[in-house]
Amino acid sequence: MTTIGRRERRKVQTRQALADAALELFLAHGYDRVTVAQIAEAADVSLATLFKHVPDGKEALIFDDGTERREAMVAAVRDRPAGVSILRALHTFLAGRGTFAVDMPADAQRKRDLIVDTPALSGYQRRLWLRGEESLTAAIAAESGCEPGAPEVRALARYILEIPDLISLDTDPRASLDAVFRLLETGWAGITGDGPASR
């Protein structure tokens, strides 16, 4: 088991205090009405400390750096059970996250709704997802036997990563997620019958 030193613990605690303060203020007053100075004051840190821990600015305050998400998504592909397709594994992975998850605790739902309803936050979250493109492309290529540079592999990875942004505002995001994966699994012709043979 890895232990971290006092300095690292302090960094983690400060980062968490900033995230907690930012989320509380955003939920109470709305993202656009809260300043970084107010967040720093609520977390009892200086503005310099805030920007040291969160150099990307206000929209990054309630997110981690996306590392956990990237690693979990790659693990969903590489560590999937025998007989489970790459697409099925990714479908299951996305179904358990964010706006697609069911039975979320009330606090998590409030945070999710804040992100979905705030363009700056949803835009930042999309950029975090897209940072995983290289890792996901490599994992899909390795597990499918395709070349990482193959356009099909790159297109699939990019499309998977765009799904949360594409359908998070739908009335029933989970149903939309299922529909998107039906399209990916069967292709357009499998959904509509509109294939080469029908022309």
TrEMBL record:
Keywords: DNA-binding, Transcription, Transcription regulation. This is Transcriptional regulator. Pfam families: TetR_N (PF00440). PANTHER family: HTH-TYPE TRANSCRIPTIONAL REGULATOR BETI, HTH-TYPE TRANSCRIPTIONAL REGULATOR RUTR. It comes from the Bacteria. It comes from Actinoplanes utahensis. GO terms for molecular function: DNA-binding transcription factor activity; transcription cis-regulatory region binding. The keyword Manganese does not apply.
